[in-house]
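Customer escalation, tier 2.

The customer says the design service returned an amino acid string that "doesn't look like it belongs to this structure." They asked us to rerun it and document both sides in this ticket. The original structure tokens are below, unchanged.
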């Protein structure tokens, strides 16, 4: 697989902007080569009149939609925000509510699937938010708006919160995940 393809895949699945250093490290090239490949990829998207672009802010790269599609994207996102939550979104939201703040890798270990898009959609809806911990790992937790929507003052008011928050099997699974890293 060529390096540009690998970088494109990383940018596509990433929920956040990626630093040049991280991209270079993940694809196994030097920083300058990664920057050259990113510039080529950026140019490919712009010249090809495609629906995606590569945005660069403070040496961080992210795949974004083309500006000429803004209106269409806004209509879609509005429908996404006011529409019903999907089953995967509900499952993710439940895990975050009972186990949060929780790292994305832990969430994915519990659910068994990549959660980047789901997390993005839940953040757009204002139901979850990222928070950086002492270890510089981004963790997700539910928002006050989510609690307000449920009519609760705290996650501790969720049904069976104490039992599910301290579930031994889940704690063991997450501990094994941490040791494997």
């Amino acid at each position: 697989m060529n390096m540009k393809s690998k970088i494109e895949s990383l940018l596509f699945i990433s929920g956040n902007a990626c630093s040049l250093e991280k991209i270079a490290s993940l694809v196994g090239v030097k920083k300058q080569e990664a920057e050259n490949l990113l510039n080529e990829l950026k140019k490919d998207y712009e010249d090809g009149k495609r629906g995606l672009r590569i945005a660069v802010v403070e040496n961080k790269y992210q795949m974004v939609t083309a500006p000429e599609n803004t209106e269409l994207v806004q209509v879609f996102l509005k429908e996404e925000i006011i529409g019903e939550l999907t089953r995967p979104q509900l499952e993710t939201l439940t895990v975050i509510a009972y186990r949060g703040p929780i790292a994305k890798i832990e969430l994915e270990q519990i659910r068994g699937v990549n959660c980047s898009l789901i997390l993005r959609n839940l953040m757009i809806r204002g139901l979850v938010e990222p928070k950086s911990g002492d270890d510089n790992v981004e963790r997700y937790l539910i928002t006050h708006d989510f609690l307000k929507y449920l009519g609760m003052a705290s996650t501790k008011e969720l049904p069976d919160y104490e039992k599910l928050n301290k579930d031994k099997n889940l704690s063991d699974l997450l501990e094994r995940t941490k040791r494997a890293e």
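Tier 2 assessment: The sequence is consistent with the input. Strands lie at 18-19, 52-57, 60-65, 102-103, 128-132, 138-142. DSSP finds ten helices and six strands in the chain. Sent an explanation to the customer and offered a walkthrough call.
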